[in-house]
Design brief:
It contains nine helices and twelve strands. Helices cover about 35% and strands about 20% of the residues. By secondary structure, it is α/β, with parallel strands linked by helices. Bound molecules: NADPH dihydro-nicotinamide-adenine-dinucleotide phosphate. The site of NADPH dihydro-nicotinamide-adenine-dinucleotide phosphate (NDP) has 23 residues, from helix 5 and helix 8. NADPH dihydro-nicotinamide-adenine-dinucleotide phosphate binds next to helix 5 and helix 8.
Length: about 280
């Protein structure tokens, strides 16, 4: 007898604008296929004024959940039914999860970063320099601080934005925070364990751009992470590797936030290597 066939897939997807350059669909569908899941991930271009309708559409079609990318990570909150702990501290959601018929907002960006960091170094009791204070930096700052970091030096060009994140971290997490206005080449303080570029410097097509820091201040004892996924080997990663630092590229965060999103939606731990391999194929690494 032939197997019963189910032509109704479980649905997930992404709402963003622009959406065409976001490779997440290829990475997530590679994981679904690899695990034989009858699940789909639909990449949708959604302008801000249509976000409420998009979430209503997901509810109507009983989507298991969806990612939100720029520019929706904050605005989507008003259309959801609740927030997970770190998403409520960060104030941004990149992953909505259907639980008992309600959409709960989670933030898997910071958790994904933390997972790739932990593959190199445990953040507890460490000193970290965080370059940038945008959405990704907020997520990384909150998650690494909640993971027991001792000291975080936040370096940002825009003083107001930097101070806002520094205040949030010192009010909502136990970490010691210091804020530095980024003006010219930044020298990494000696004794730093981890350096993270969470700015958009180095993103395609501006691939030759190097974050303004004194590269001689990178020491071989440091772990240096860049969250730019394309290209994965940014100038910062190249300079740090040349100086003997352990390096973490932006594909790690992208893959791991996807692994965590899929776990939230399906309950299944998928294989990150399959997802990374698909991205490397796309980026020609
Ligand atoms: P935001 O626009 O929210 O923040 C951008 C940050 O970069 C700000 O701190 C900004 O500083 C800083 N910046 C930009 N240009 C410069 C410059 N020339 N000199 C100094 N600082 C600069 O963006 P996001 O935080 O959402 O994203 C940042 C990057 O992270 C993007 O490139 C994105 O692709 C990547 N990303 C990667 C992910 C992954 O999974 N690998 C996940 C999420 C994001 P200022 O405040 O002074 O303007």
């Amino acid at each position: 007898m032939s197997e019963p066939v189910n032509f109704l897939s479980e649905l997930t997807g992404s709402f963003a604008e622009p959406a065409a350059e976001n490779p997440t669909v290829a990475m997530i569908e590679a994981a679904y296929r690899n695990h034989g899941l009858n699940w789909r991930y639909i990449n949708c271009e959604v302008p801000p004024e249509k976000l409420a309708d998009a979430v209503r559409g997901a509810r109507a079609m009983n989507w298991a959940g969806f990612n939100c990318s720029l520019p929706h990570k904050v605005q989507v909150i008003q259309h959801l039914d609740g927030l997970g702990e770190s998403a409520s501290i960060i104030g941004a959601v990149n992953c909505a999860v259907r639980r008992d018929g309600q959409y709960i907002g989670e933030n898997t960006d910071g958790k994904g970063f933390l997972q790739s960091l932990r593959e190199q170094v445990a953040p507890a009791h460490k000193r970290l320099v965080l370059l940038g204070a945008g959405g990704a930096a907020r997520a990384i700052g909150v998650e690494t601080a909640l993971a027991g970091l001792q000291h975080l030096t936040l370096v940002n060009r825009n003083e107001d934005r930097g101070r806002q994140l520094a205040t949030l971290l010192s009010e909502k997490t136990p970490v010691e925070v210091e804020f530095v206005v980024w003006d010219g080449e930044y020298k990494i303080p000696s004794g730093t364990d981890i350096v993270v570029n969470a700015t958009s410097i180095g993103l395609f097509p501006d691939v030759e751009a190097l974050v303004p820091l004194r590269v001689e201040s990178l020491d071989a004892s440091m772990v240096v992470a860049d969250i730019i996924p394309n290209p994965p080997r940014t100038r910062l990663i190249q300079e740090a590797a040349q100086r003997g630092c352990r390096v973490i590229d932006g594909l790690g965060m992208l893959v791991n936030q996807g692994v965590i999103s899929i776990k939230y939606w399906t309950g299944i731990d998928v294989d990150p290597d399959v997802m990374r391999a698909r991205l490397e194929e796309i980026f020609g690494v």
